[in-house]
Amino acid sequence: MRRVAVTGIGLITPVGVGRERVFQSLTEGRSGISRIDGFDTSALKTTMAGICRDFRPEDFFDEREKTRLDRVSQLAIAAAESAARDAGMNDEILNNYDTGVIIGTGFGGQESVEEYCGAYFNNQGRRTAIAIPKAMYNAASSNIAIRLKTRGPNITLSTACSSGANAIGQAFHMIRYGQAERMIAGGADAPVTPVVMDAWKDMRVLSTKNDPPERACKPFSANRDGFVLAEGAGIVVMETIESARERGAHIYAEIIGYGATADASHITFPDSEGEAHAILRALRDAAVHPEEIAYVNAHGTATKLNDISETEALKKVFGSRAREIPVSSIKSMLGHSMGASGAIEFIATVLAIENKKIPPTINYEEADPQCDLDYVTEGARELKAAAARMAALSNSFGFGGNNAVLVAASSNDITA
Amino acid sequence: MTRGAVQSVEDVVKNIIAAELRVSRDQLNPETHLMKDLGADSLDALNIALRLEEAFKIKIPDDAIPKFLTVSDIVTGVNDHLSERQ
Questions:
Q1: Cβ contacts (< 8 Å) between A139 and chain B: which residues?
Q2: pLDDT tens, A280-302?
Q3: What's the domain range around A267?
């Protein structure tokens, strides 16, 4: 069984672009939620979202390329290219059949779908002959391959809010079990659109605490009233430890475990049993005892249901020790970027391990008796190992009852 | 009169090509080859055909599109369709 290292990181988020900037914002407790100004929100109850305002598509694409790519593909390609560059990978390393791509997305090319449907149904918006290749779910992963010339397996998966985590988990296993030498994997979503905002409104799960937007998302706080929709992309480059060593590449962390389960109960109502089993499977896959986990990066959406269910799941796995483990939700700052969130949060977990620093849960105001763990609400905190080797969990639980959990560990024993 | 109408078809065609391929109108002369000179591909050709159909209210048959190689090919093609319609 081969060991797998994370050697490249690409991040585009509402709090900034690039790992240094993003991790700094997160540990400073800065929110990236802002008022939506790209379309009319007067009929909506929620008028804010996590928008990647520092992302400059023109840094990556010329005018013609931009018209060919939905925003989700732009985010994904930019993050993938940044990750490959960060890993120090050139064409020679990438341009072969042993390098693959797995991208998770919940909404795919939603903006393009809406543009074309608008033209079709209402004569609003512009028809285009390339709506299909722009809107299809696999556009992002395929365009990454075209851009970086990766010729190995190219897969798109969609498991709602756990898409990005499943993408990284599946890619990790492909390397571990010898089906690929290196993988570019993560998640991307660009769902902040008029139709999607309206559809979420009718589900009544979005926060309506619009003023001020930065304080809207309150995971685990008794006065939380829902999640805040966001866009973004988080993509990693993974390879075997041997390959990373041979190249002299920087190893951010080792990915050591992946567990996935289905609740098999309800399409939207979470089940702590299914979630707990995903955590247990990830720990078993990592050959790590629950005692060794030093930090949990929570799914922590700030919906009433998720935060209670996730808290229960952690208690089921960790027992009385659950209260001693720091658990934080960076969705409090980034909002919920759907298929990207699991990947962005895994990267935040990796960076927390590397920097020995836990990003906080911001906007926590009122204790909820059903959410009674240590949610790191006072600000960033030093991350202390619970065992000889630092190990941490990243939870992702999606609509559909799709749960995916990843385990990362410090690279100390590899690089020392 | 006829000459004026031809000129205006060419104008519209050039505007569409320039907008779709993000090139300056000055770059376009009758012999400019969309693929060889401007880097267009088959998807660009489809979008240009769609815009031509909208602008001239014509239907461009599938087998006409691969023959749209140069600016003058397109102008001639559009003029043919316009005259067929009348």
A1: none
A2: 999 999 999 999 999 999 999 99
A3: 257-410
Task: Tell me if A416 is assigned to some domain.
Answer: no
Mutation pick from B16, B23, B48, B50 vs chain A, by most beta carbons of A within 10 Å, is B50
Predicted complex: ipTM over 0.85: no
* Average pLDDT rounded to a whole number, residues B29-35: 96
Confirm or reject contact between B82 and chain A (CB < 8 A). Answer: no
Q: Give every CB contact of residue A57 below 8 A, 6+ residues apart in sequence.
A: A66, A74, A78
> What is the structure's pLDDT at A416?
44
Which DSSP category does A360 fall into? P
Catalytic residue status for B63: no
DSSP string for A203-217: HT-B----SSGGG--
* HSE value, Cβ hemisphere, 13 Å, CA-based, for B30: 9
Collect all residues with Cβ–Cβ distance below 8 Å to A66 and sequence separation of at least 6.
Answer: A57, A58, A74
Cα dihedral sign, A363-A365-A369-A372: positive
Task: Point out the residue among B21, B22, B47 whose CB comes nearest to the CB of A129.
Answer: B47
B3 near A CB under 8 A = no
Selected catalytic residue, list A52, A217, A277, A299: A299
Predicted local distance difference test score (pLDDT) of residue B5? 52
Last residue of a domain, one of A188, A213, A247: A247
In the prediction, which pLDDT does A415 show?
55
Q: Do A62 and B22 touch (CB under 8 A)?
A: yes
CA distance B45 to chain A (A): 9
Q: How far apart are CA B11 and CA B27, in angstroms?
A: 13
Whole-model pTM above 0.90?
yes
- Closest Cα of chain B to A284: distance in Å? 49
Number of domains in chain B: 1
- By C-alpha distance, the chain B residue nearest A130 is B43
Asked if residue A339 lies in contact with residue A164, where contact means CB atoms within 8 angstroms, the answer is yes
Q: Which one from B41, B44, B73, B80 is the annotated catalytic residue?
A: B41
Cβ within 8 Å, pair A130-B43: yes
> Which residues does A287 contact at the CB level (< 8 Å), separation at least 6?
A256, A257
Residue-number span of the structural domain to which B30 is assigned: 2-85
Q: Which of A64, A127, A133 sits opposite B22 (nearest CB)?
A: A64
Q: What is the CATH number of the domain that holds A66?
A: 3.40.47.10
Q: Report the percentage of chain A scoring pLDDT > 90.
A: 97
d(CA A354, CA A155): 29
Burial A19-36, CB ≥16 within 10 A → b, else e: beebbbbbbebebbbbeb
Are A130 and B22 within 8 A, CB to CB? Answer: no
Integer CA distances (angstroms), A87 to A28, A247, B30, B75, in order: 26, 10, 48, 50
